[in-house]
Design brief:
Sulfite Reductase Hemoprotein, domain 1, 556 residues, alpha+beta, binds siroheme, Sulfite Reductase Hemoprotein, domain 2, five-stranded antiparallel sheet, 20 strands, 3 domains, globular, binds iron/sulfur cluster, single chain
């Protein structure tokens, strides 16, 4: 046993000693220092909080002999991305009162606040908990925010799938009362001594984060193959409604470990609604027991599946489940692509408008669109439902027919572009936050996205390709938070000013992009893509996407 402990990563030791995620967080939060210790920073992640510093001022401050400007990022889990108007208004208030004035919508339908001071963390947690939201379990070695295609939810908000998302979001959270005790209820919460963590977490939780998404069978806006577990709802002829379960996806890589890679999930089984809870738990226990705990860079479930092979992994799940798994059913090929943007009528005759939010950053631009003001005005006046999408956008859903014109007028008044006005790259471009907040960023991402979008759209325009779409995803490092590994054009930070260029993924999310050029600057990218756009225009078939064309004609 002691040998095993010697091999564990230090985070495992911190988790085990934490008394169900408490550690000395309460004391650390009260201490006068602006930052926290490394151990506390690891535990804070389970509470949805990241210790960061402002990287724009880091160098200058350190040269002056000053400490870095310590700040915190708080991620609020929003299951299925669904929010009520009063929940949105609470997030809006928090963003002005204790964060940097923006609300950052994430690629997993959650919300992030940046630039929060340590002294404001408790107030923030308390405010959002009043609206039944929490950051607990939004980060850390647990099941992260449950992602669900907003189409599935909006079409049937009271349906079985919507209920299942809510159920999973509750039952897959850690059982520990630590969060409520430290951040919300003070000493009213149950003592750690009597607490038992959920059986699939135990005292050291999972080896790493674990991601679950429920995708639409007709389109793949959630990137279901990029998840540790992807669930695709289908009807089985014999067994009725259930899910094709794909396992072992994940897109992060690390330059520091060459044996890390992006991987697509592969079919594991078919499970009915009644079976899905037990199946997920058995997968989690398998991962908890067999997953790597030595090198955190190679601890995700995708490596376990890759190392064992899916057949052996299935067998291990069966051993824990107590019976054989069914064969997976054939995965339906998505019939289309749906970014959920623009206006549409829902089955219950209400309306929905999907608003493009550049890089998910809901804020008011001084001489541009006022996203926060517009959405606040809608939340204050209308009984609607909001959905955050996995493409960092926001849907205003369940709009009564009589309110449609007024909501359209609000969006126009605050300068929000109509979907038809969006450029062919702008419409679907994603970027991770990167600098100045992300401690792992090697290069800019969100802040340089508009430049790259503009450069690529110039190339599209000069070739009269503006009626086609081109999917661009950019990240500041190979962790891949905006999922560039499955994009038509993936731009991945390598050094301060250079990026690796990946090409040939696609909007079905079922193919990895290929490394096309290493270490290029943003300014070089249009020149590298331009000849391929020419070929796509002249050699591609009219309904062939750029990614499909590249894969068929250039890569092969
Ligand atoms: Fe991510 C770490 C932001 C989705 C793979 N991610 C981070 C951290 C917390 C940086 C850190 O560890 O210090 C970033 C916070 C930066 C900041 O300043 O805000 C960060 N990740 C994001 C978000 C906000 C990107 C966005 O533009 O929306 C997304 C938040 C999701 C959420 O709401 O839960 C986000 N991250 C993803 C995705 C995409 C997805 O899940 O669909 C991936 C690739 C899929 C995957 O997990 O393989 C992703 N993030 C990572 C990794 C690589 C993990 C690995 O397997 O090695 C890290 C690094 C880590 O965990 O140590 C990371
Ligand atoms: Fe940070 Fe890298 Fe994720 Fe971008 S991809 S947010 S730089 S960890």
């Amino acid at each position: 046993m002691s040998d095993l402990k010697d091999l564990e990563s230090p985070v495992e030791v911190t988790k085990r000693a934490s008394r169900h995620l408490r550690g000395d967080l309460a004391e650390q939060l009260r201490a006068p220092e602006a930052n926290v210790t490394e151990d506390a920073a690891q535990l804070l992640k389970f509470h949805g909080i990241y210790a960061q510093d402002n990287r724009d001022s880091r160098r200058e401050r350190v040269q002056r002999g000053d400490a870095p400007e310590y700040i915190f990022m708080v991620r609020v889990a929003i299951p299925g991305g669904r929010l009520s108007p009063s929940q949105w208004l609470a997030l809006d208030t928090v963003s002005s009162e204790v964060a940097d004035g923006s609300i950052r919508l994430t690629t997993r339908q959650a919300v992030q606040f940046h630039g929060v001071a340590k002294t404001h963390l408790v107030a923030l947690a308390g405010r959002i908990s009043e609206e039944l939201m929490t950051s607990f379990g939004a980060c850390g070695d647990v099941v992260r925010n449950i992602v669900m295609c907003p189409g599935l939810h909006a079409e049937n908000p009271a349906g079985r799938l919507a209920q299942m998302t809510a159920h999973l979001a509750t039952t897959l959270k850690p059982a520990s009362n630590a969060h409520w005790e430290i951040f919300v209820n003070g000493d009213r919460a149950v003592s750690a001594e009597t607490e038992v963590e959920r059986d699939f977490y135990g005292s050291t939780y999972l080896p790493r984060k674990f991601k679950v998404a429920i995708g639409h069978p007709n389109e793949n806006c959630v990137d279901v193959y990029a998840q540790d577990l992807g669930l695709i709802p289908v009807e089985d002829e014999d067994l009725g409604a259930g899910f094709i379960v794909v396992a072992g996806g994940g897109l992060g890589r690390s330059y520091a470990n060459s044996d890390t890679f992006a991987r697509l999930g592969e079919p594991l089984t078919f499970a009915t609604y009644d079976e899905i809870d037990e199946l997920i738990r058995s997968v989690l226990v398998t991962y908890r027991e067999l997953g790597g705990r030595v090198d955190r860079r190679r601890a995700r479930m995708k490596y376990l599946i890759s190392d064992l092979g899916i057949t052996t992994f299935r067998h291990e799940v069966e051993l824990r489940l107590g019976h054989a798994l069914r064969e997976a059913r054939p995965i339906p090929t998505p019939v289309g692509v749906d970014d959920h943007l623009g206006w549409r009528e829902l089955p219950d005759a209400t309306h929905q408008v999907g608003i493009r939010i550049p890089a998910g950053r809901v804020k008011d631009y001084p001489s541009g669109p006022k996203y926060r003001e517009a959405i606040r005005a809608i939340a204050q006046r209308f009984d609607v439902t909001f959905y955050i999408t996995a493409a960092q956008d926001l849907l205003v859903s369940r709009i009564a027919s009589e309110d449609r014109a007024e909501i359209a007028a609000i969006l126009e008044a605050f300068g929000i572009k109509r979907t038809e006005e969006l450029g062919p790259v702008e419409r679907g471009a994603l970027a991770c936050p990167a600098l100045p907040t992300c401690g792992q960023a090697l290069a800019e991402s969100e802040r340089r996205l508009p430049d790259l979008v503009g450069l690529l759209e110039n190339e599209m325009r000069s070739r009269s390709l503006t009626d086609r779409s081109l999917q661009l995803r950019m990240t500041g490092c190979p962790n891949g938070c905006a999922r560039p590994a499955v994009a038509e054009i993936g731009v991945v930070g390598k050094t301060k000013s250079t990026y690796d260029l990946f090409l040939g993924g696609g909007e079905r999310g079922d193919r990895l992009a290929r490394l096309y050029r290493e270490k290029v600057t943003i300014e070089q990218i249009p020149g590298l893509v331009a000849p391929l756009l020419d070929r796509w225009k002249h050699e591609g078939s009219p309904d062939e996407s750029f990614g499909d064309f590249f894969h068929r004609a250039v890569e092969s």
